[in-house]
Specification:
85 residues, Non-ribosomal Peptide Synthetase Peptidyl Carrier Protein, Chain A, 62% helix
Amino acid sequence: MEITEIINKTNAFLIEEFEVAPGSITPEADLKSTLGLDSLDYIDLVVAIEANFGFKVKPEDFQGIASFQDFYNYVIERLKQKELV
């Protein structure tokens, strides 16, 4: 899967799942505040990632994710690891 494809797919399910305006999702935007995430929303986010990309997410994976770019990088890296298996 190409990087642009991953970003577009990620944005699509984030917009649908968290009901945010497409224009509010930019690489440098803060993930938590833009999506209005609370602790329960993180569970929804994990479920959406696992359903859309087919890999398991651990709660500690989110510790280094602040921006959407961090999130994209995380998904891209996990997909690369998945392809190597």
